[in-house]
Amino acid sequence: MVPRYSRPQMEAIWSPAARYRIWFEIEALAAEAMASIGTIPADAARIIREKGAPRAAAISDADVAAIDAIERETRHDVIAFLTWMAQGIGPEARFMHQGMTSSDVLDTCLAVQMARAADLLIADLDALLAALKARAMEHRMTPTVGRSHGIHAEPTTFGLKLAGHHAEFARGRARLVAARAEVATCAISGPVGTFASVDPRVEAFVADRLGLAVEPVSTQVIPRDRHAAFFCALAVVASAIERLATEVRHLQRSEVREAEEFFHPGQKGSSAMPHKRNPVLSENLTGLARLVRGYAVPALENVALWHERDISHSSVERVIAPDATIALDFALMRLTGMMEKLTVYPARMAANLESLGGVVHSQKVLLALTQAGMSREDAYRAVQRAAMATWEALGTPAARGFRDNLLADATVSALLDGPALDAAMDPRRDFAHVDTIFRRVFGEG
Amino acid sequence: MVPRYSRPQMEAIWSPAARYRIWFEIEALAAEAMASIGTIPADAARIIREKGAPRAAAISDADVAAIDAIERETRHDVIAFLTWMAQGIGPEARFMHQGMTSSDVLDTCLAVQMARAADLLIADLDALLAALKARAMEHRMTPTVGRSHGIHAEPTTFGLKLAGHHAEFARGRARLVAARAEVATCAISGPVGTFASVDPRVEAFVADRLGLAVEPVSTQVIPRDRHAAFFCALAVVASAIERLATEVRHLQRSEVREAEEFFHPGQKGSSAMPHKRNPVLSENLTGLARLVRGYAVPALENVALWHERDISHSSVERVIAPDATIALDFALMRLTGMMEKLTVYPARMAANLESLGGVVHSQKVLLALTQAGMSREDAYRAVQRAAMATWEALGTPAARGFRDNLLADATVSALLDGPALDAAMDPRRDFAHVDTIFRRVFGEG
Amino acid sequence: MVPRYSRPQMEAIWSPAARYRIWFEIEALAAEAMASIGTIPADAARIIREKGAPRAAAISDADVAAIDAIERETRHDVIAFLTWMAQGIGPEARFMHQGMTSSDVLDTCLAVQMARAADLLIADLDALLAALKARAMEHRMTPTVGRSHGIHAEPTTFGLKLAGHHAEFARGRARLVAARAEVATCAISGPVGTFASVDPRVEAFVADRLGLAVEPVSTQVIPRDRHAAFFCALAVVASAIERLATEVRHLQRSEVREAEEFFHPGQKGSSAMPHKRNPVLSENLTGLARLVRGYAVPALENVALWHERDISHSSVERVIAPDATIALDFALMRLTGMMEKLTVYPARMAANLESLGGVVHSQKVLLALTQAGMSREDAYRAVQRAAMATWEALGTPAARGFRDNLLADATVSALLDGPALDAAMDPRRDFAHVDTIFRRVFGEG
Amino acid sequence: MVPRYSRPQMEAIWSPAARYRIWFEIEALAAEAMASIGTIPADAARIIREKGAPRAAAISDADVAAIDAIERETRHDVIAFLTWMAQGIGPEARFMHQGMTSSDVLDTCLAVQMARAADLLIADLDALLAALKARAMEHRMTPTVGRSHGIHAEPTTFGLKLAGHHAEFARGRARLVAARAEVATCAISGPVGTFASVDPRVEAFVADRLGLAVEPVSTQVIPRDRHAAFFCALAVVASAIERLATEVRHLQRSEVREAEEFFHPGQKGSSAMPHKRNPVLSENLTGLARLVRGYAVPALENVALWHERDISHSSVERVIAPDATIALDFALMRLTGMMEKLTVYPARMAANLESLGGVVHSQKVLLALTQAGMSREDAYRAVQRAAMATWEALGTPAARGFRDNLLADATVSALLDGPALDAAMDPRRDFAHVDTIFRRVFGEG
Fold first, then answer.
1. Half-sphere exposure at residue D119, Cβ-oriented, CA atoms within 13 angstroms
2. Per residue, what are the HEC states of B399-442?
3. CB–CB contact B95 A370 (8 Å)
4. Which UniProt keywords apply (chains A, B, C, D) (predicted)?
5. Mind listing the pLDDT tens digit for each residue in A390-406?
6. Which positions in chain A touch C148 (Cβ < 8 Å)?
């Protein structure tokens, strides 16, 4: 992922040095397990750990280059690493990797990295959820117009909008927790996964020490349906980001102006037009969501490996595992900051809510008419007539409010007089169940 | 979905009549709930049910056409349906849909349909799992070569291969169960989801009767992250199908011939070449998997609806909800039948396993040499030398088995004599842990 | 594709009967070619044509079912068709399909169908281009605000907006023409494409009669990169549809109201809210665009068939070839109708353009200041200051126009007085090059 | 893109310094154009070029960091760059970027970069085409079995296989040339694309100097359908790579062994199994193809920008423009090297071709029987019977060749005796048209 969209903590998970350190840890733990069951000498395991651990811990850029140089000859990354480690460990290095195959190391390492990445993403989501909850509570009763199809529908509150996004990200968090469990498995089963030359107890030992589950049946590789499910979970979270970002983009439109991304002192919105303040963060998040969604496509194609394994998944994962997690981590944190600092304009929300002459209350009048005995079809026509008359005259000298247009309609006023209409359109009814919904989303309190 | 890939039971879930029947059930239940809390007269709910139920139950193609005709005028599908129902119910029809909006009906109906579709798919998976288990048990100890990169690696058993696929489909089943729970929610919250004109108790009542959970916060629509997660789950299952189909395609290759799709009496493999027996079912499944994966892409784009809802998701779902579930249902059942009837050739498996002169035991020799004191690097080189010599002479007059080539290498024979080599390569070692893996996958017994 | 989004003319291309008629035509033409070079008796070709043509022309649903019944035994669609044809042709039927393989028929038929579908789509685009041109000409000089990031930027005209979409669809048309040429090839090369038993002259003859190019090298199948490119071209056109649909959705927002989809007498916008007039066509088009884009994904996966061919592409194409072309055909015609009838509100456009107190002219002031000697950075700061002051006071008692705020700034008024400002902000400058752009898009006149 | 899959020449196109140098060139050319038409002083343009050119040419990592630092304050990349340039140019810098907007610079720069990337990719394809042609010529008449469905079909030549891939990559090259033309356009049209403050002659001048076409109508941005088409073209080429890579993977299978990736001295195929030689390059290419295909998905979503532009495309393109072109460049060169060094085993091809007892000639016998008067259905059954008998006895003591089984069938031998059968199955017929196909693909000679 380009530096622009990368945060150091997530990048660090995917660095070559981090990967090599995990590789060593897997090999050292496996050696210890083998020593404990007598497959290799106890001394060998001890020496591997004692000499290997500091060597692995101190891996530098130069060391990475040295390993790369060995790989250029062997054309095999794990062998290159083992060869380089052996240079520091000495003859006992021959007891490393006994009965194992490179996938045991690679796939278990990837599991550790993906689990760590998932942990970061879950923490990101926690921060986002906290921000959304705070703003939702703050605006629990801030009236604003609810829109369907981009058209004013009925009143809602800004807090309710945020509560909906909170619930969606809470679901996304649950999906990430499930996805983490999917990928956090350890396989040390040797070639084609039969444990022919490595005891299953080694796998159990390493899994336990690394906090992973044992992969029940690996075919040399950990099956890639797990990873596909993981990247799909990221894609759904990314799409939730896009939904909230799109909301902000809409609210910041010049004609709407109900909310606005924080505009920093010194910030310039456009190289040409000094008046511009643009929702560039939300737009950026929209693009990042597209990227993360796109990464799910090759992840799904990775599932159908040939026979016990092929290595076509590898190039895909070398790219998308860091790219998707780094981009999503960045996007979540950017979104959190954006929502924390979002400037909200309740007065403008109120003005927009009133701007269509009251037609947003049309349903309640329709219901009152049917309750008063009119057929649904007739009531619909009468209310639609009054609403359209209101709407079409907006901003013209002939403008007349929805209430007045209703009263001017004989079929309506025959059933509902002014006070009855006012009762039907009482705005308190719109918010009567806000607390119910908040309780559902945020629990009691 | 084209008829060719459709089974009646799944198609039925998505028929117009089925949809209208669910719509009616939602409206009738909602009316009953409203009557029970006094929003509408009790008689109205009774009459809606009594007159409406038989009308809905008997919806014919002609009725569907009649509703379509109304829709051509109103340009609104739910209003068209309500109008048509009202024709049979009479004046009390005005108490239907009180305070509700069309999404309440549409989205709750979709939830019912998706839950039913998921149930069918889960049953399909159960049948597939049973078939895979039966064949796995049958071939638990049928030796065959394990392949990585398409190259012979080490021995495994055909049962182990199937156990791996069983475990993958069991995970797919768990994901479908989770996905079903994601989408099986009921929303009856009225315009923009505020319950302004419909009591939350109505939603609770309908949800309970339909076996759905209450949607905690709907914004007029049930949020589409749920559906995206559902279609992603289908896509991962489809990819698992492709993995097994690809295995069968490989095993049926002319050069491999280890297994074969059942060839029916009367079947013709090619219009031109009478000798052909092709793995056409597996290839068909590979294509179906691509389709189902493809449907996840627009499902993910559907998440970011505008504000409280727009209707861009609708055209997507009208197509992919039936198409993805029908195609996956068909694919699962086709795969089950194919696996049940798969012809397996153990003799050919044994012949292939032996065909490379024994080099599939190279790792065990490598380990024996390191255990005997040789460095890993030297041992690797010696064994690689013997293996390559074996491989390259295959089928030539100079052909010599791996064992003989090893013994002919002084550095090897200095450490391992014939009996030691035989002990290292003892094929019983390859299958020592098959039972362990079977227990992990299938449990005890 | 579901009937809702299908037009008869495009559906007809993909009907079973249509396919069988093309199959027969290919076989009959091939027989004639073979007769002309002496491979089969001349009489045979004549009888095949004479007896077969009426049989093929009259294929009924019952015939399709009869062919299906044969396929259930042979499990091969082309053999089933040939067997059914043979029943009507008699012994000379044995001279049909000589040296050919089913792919020769299937792939050449698909080429004919895709070419026909492309022709319809190109005609659809021509209708859309005409509609866009007419509306663009009508609104060539209708001022409206141009928006970047959803924020008012500078004035433009509504005609210019439409000119941009016209140019995009003209590019889409060119891509479809290219895509049609990609797929309109004929392959009659027999098993594995070697012409071992069919003379290349047969291919040339059939290609010529069907208006197709000869496929230079087919490997039994026409290579699927051609089809992938075709579906990608559809996906790009679909995305252009989404761009225009999104524009209309924005313009119809309650706060914007610059344009509106035609609202039919009798139409109902919402089952709950009689006041609603929603941009449902544009939203529908947005969803259809997602679908068509989604179909490109499996088309791309279809390219890598195994060896000389496998049949995994077939199930994909049976679905996406009709679905993608039918959906796109429907979408293009819907979009054309929508644009023809789009209600445009120039007064509202003018009002919106003025609604931000004149800040949309900020760049021109910036430039005037730099021309008057101020540094770009200082000018930017001064203009930004005046614009933000204007913006933030909008709708408040302290509201003051951008011009006044500029004049109140000493650094500005030191360089530009009122008349100079007015000259800088002269709106005629905004539209000085509209004709230039129109000439580029629509040519002279 | 990760360094592992990056080549320096393609990476260089996308470096920050390269981008800034193109930005400067655009600004300097625009200034020169403005000076030539009198919009800015001639001296200003001269000074911008004289002072700016060396500054831009020498941009170092430290300079990039300095620009980044300015961007952190302005939160605008182009303004940051202009500010940094102004520090070196002095007061005349205020005449840079007059009437332009950042998109003018960004999009025209992207066009330059994409055109350069396309040029590299086209050169890569030329190298690949040369390699494929050379190997195709070398193996023009090397017999090998053609396979459909992975099953032996009829003889072909290895050269013919390669000719098919050559033709596919030649089409890919043509698509890249078209895609290059799509994106190689220049837009300098100012805010919302109206040329309100910048003369169209500036655009024409810059376009000419940069070798770009003028964008007929830009809406501040160059429309993204162009870029979507570009990335789709890359995706189709990537899929062609996968098809050839898949072929090599199949040919290298242990049971097939007809071709093999070059195995370097010192190379190690597996950390566990010294006997392994795996087609790792082809598998790697398969994964890279998935990546490049995946990048087309967000590119298609980028098309529907809001109004005259939003910036959601930007984050997508910052990632996929380099990633897709770098990955494809790497893949093409890797494939070229792989094909140049591919080890081909004609003897093994011949052995495989003969391995099924001659059933690969079944069609020719079928045709001979129909020519001799048997109905197609009867002939099919007879030949199928003989072929299946041959096939099923393969490798058993009862094995009997296809020819013998045919002669043993009374219905066959009644029409065709031994010499007639031999004439029908004459292998020379299989290759009679190889030259025809080669001429089609490679032209005369």
1. 10
2. CCCHHHHHHCCHHHHCCCCHHHHHHHCCHHHHHCCHHHHHHHHH
3. yes
4. Lyase, Purine biosynthesis
5. 988 988 888 899 999 99
6. 270, 276, 278
Domain check: are C7 and C136 in the same one? no
Judged by average pLDDT, the poorest of A14-23, C280-289, C398-407, D305-314 is C398-407
Please report whether residue B53 resides in a domain: yes
Q: Which 3 state secondary structure label does DSSP give A213?
A: strand
Smallest CA–CA distance, residue C317 to chain B, in Å, is 9
Q: For chain B, give the longest Cα–Cα distance.
A: 101
Residues B88, B24, single domain; the answer is: yes
| C191 belongs to a structural domain | yes
B149 among known catalytic residues: yes
Is the distance from CB of D27 to CB of D105 less than 8 angstroms? yes
What are the tens digits of pLDDT across the range C239-258? Answer: 999 999 999 999 999 999 99
Give chains near A: 3+ CB pairs under 8 A: B, C, D
Q: Return the partners of chain C (3 or more C-beta pairs < 8 Å).
A: A, B, D
Shared domain check, A366 and A349: no
Chain A neighbors of B167, CB-CB under 8 A: 216-217, 223
Q: And the tokens for C239?
A: 């995305």
Q: Which domain holds residue B277?
A: 100-350
Chain B residue closest in CA terms to C68: B4
Look up residue A285 and give its amino acid.
Answer: L
CB contact under 8 A, B376 and A150: no
Residue D90: alpha-carbon gap to chain centroid? 46
Q: Which of D308, D337, D356 is the C-terminal boundary of a domain? A: D356
Residue D147 lies in a domain: yes
Per-residue confidence band for D445, with pLDDT thresholds at 50, 70 and 90: low
Q: Using CA atoms in the order A297, A301, A303, A308, what is the torsion angle rounded to 10 degrees?
A: -150
**Which position among C60, C148, C149, C307 bears the catalytic label?**
C149
Check whether residue B326 and residue B392 sit in a common domain: no
Chain C residue numbers with beta carbons less than 8 Å from the beta carbon of A250 are: 150
> Do A312 and A351 reside in the same domain of the chain?
yes
Among partner residues C86, C160, C229, which is closest to D175 by beta-carbon distance? C229
Given A6, A218, A264, A270, the catalytic residue: A270
DSSP secondary-structure letter at A203? H
Contact call for D294 and A293, based on CB within 8 A: no
Residue C8 CB-density burial (10 A; 0-12 exposed, 13-18 middle, 19+ buried): exposed
Q: Is residue B297 helix, strand or coil? A: helix
Provide the ipTM: 0.96
User: A25 and A171 share a domain?
Assistant: no
CA distance B359 to chain D (A): 6
What pLDDT, in 10s, does the model give residues A266-321? 888 888 888 999 999 999 999 999 999 999 999 999 999 999 999 999 999 999 99
What's the pLDDT at D308? 97
Tell me if residue B270 is catalytic: yes
Closest approach of D329 to chain B, Cα-based (Å): 24
Q: Which CATH number goes with the domain that contains D223?
A: 1.20.200.10
Please determine, for residue B445, whether its predicted confidence score (pLDDT) is greater than 60.
Answer: no
Q: Are A438 and A159 in contact (CB under 8 A)?
A: yes
Q: What are chain D's partners, defined as 3 or more CB pairs within 8 angstroms?
A: A, B, C
Q: Do D250 and B150 touch (CB under 8 A)?
A: yes
CB contact under 8 A, C220 and D94: no
Q: Pick from C424, C430, C421, C432: which is nearest to C353 by CA?
A: C430
Percent of chain C residues past pLDDT 90, beyond the cut: 92
CA separation for the pair A194, A191 (Å, rounded): 7
Where among D77, D98, D119 does a domain terminate? Answer: D98
At a CB cut-off of 8 Å and minimum separation 6, what does D213 contact? D181, D184, D185, D186, D207
CB contact under 8 A, D167 and C223: yes
